[in-house]
Design brief:
This protein is of the alpha+beta class and about 230 residues long. Helix content is about 25%, strand content about 25%.
């Protein structure tokens, strides 16, 4: 049984940086889960965050211990919900969670849609220049959910796996998308995974059309990565 810590946040203004809702606070007690996420949770840049296929963000709690080892001088920064996640658990990782997995959570049902794609904002907010590429290369990205059925949820209601709908783990999806050379067969495999998000399916399709992998620089490093 995996009981999640639950977090929500509102959009805040930051000096010399774009608005963001990355700063989250823990929710005590029940909260409504809507088609677009937890009631009271916000997203600033909806082209990249939120929406039906990205309603919830889950980041494994055990990754923080690894990150504290990588950045011992910044270890105080690496505790949930530093990555702006909505859910944090122990025992659920990219290796044992699969694209398309449907979980019962309280009165709701949620489905894994894609890995999280780390972006430059993590570098900025955690003051670690190469944090996003490290997460991507190590496969410690977390994942996103769509809401299949709404309802009341809480941290004292476990995430229970109901159905496994694909043979592609989140770890494998990260490897295919971010860490291996161009591979048409693997892109088609990822696109065929039941439950994959529309945006990830489109990205893989565009690779097949363009016969190349898109540049990750701007996402990982911001304007300096153009």
């Amino acid at each position: 049984m995996h009981y999640p810590d639950v977090y929500i946040g509102t959009i805040e203004q930051y000096p010399d940086f774009s608005p963001s809702a990355i700063a989250k606070r823990q929710v005590d007690g029940g909260v409504a889960l809507t088609p677009c996420g937890l009631e009271g949770d916000q997203q600033a840049e909806k082209a990249y965050h939120g929406g039906a296929d990205r309603a919830l963000c889950h980041f494994p709690r055990e990754h923080y211990a690894w990150l504290r080892q990588q950045f011992p001088e910044e270890e105080d920064r690496f505790h949930p919900p530093a990555f702006g996640e909505n859910l944090s658990t122990l025992g659920m990782t990219e290796d044992n969670v699969f694209i398309g997995d449907i979980f019962r959570w309280g009165d709701a049902l949620i489905q894994v849609t894609q890995p999280r794609a780390p972006c430059y904002k993590l570098n900025h907010f955690l003051d670690c220049k190469n944090l996003s590429p490290l997460l991507q290369q190590s496969g410690r990205c977390g994942w996103l959910y769509r809401v299949v059925s709404t309802g009341n949820v809480s941290g004292d209601r476990p995430l229970e796996l109901l159905t496994r709908n694909s043979e592609v783990s989140v770890a494998q999806a990260i490897s295919i998308a971010f860490n291996m050379p161009f591979d048409e067969e693997q892109y088609r495999r990822l696109m065929s995974a039941a439950g994959i998000s529309a945006s990830w399916s489109k990205t893989m399709q565009m690779r097949l059309v363009n016969r190349k992998i898109e540049d990750f620089g701007r996402r990982l490093f911001g304007a300096e990565g153009k």
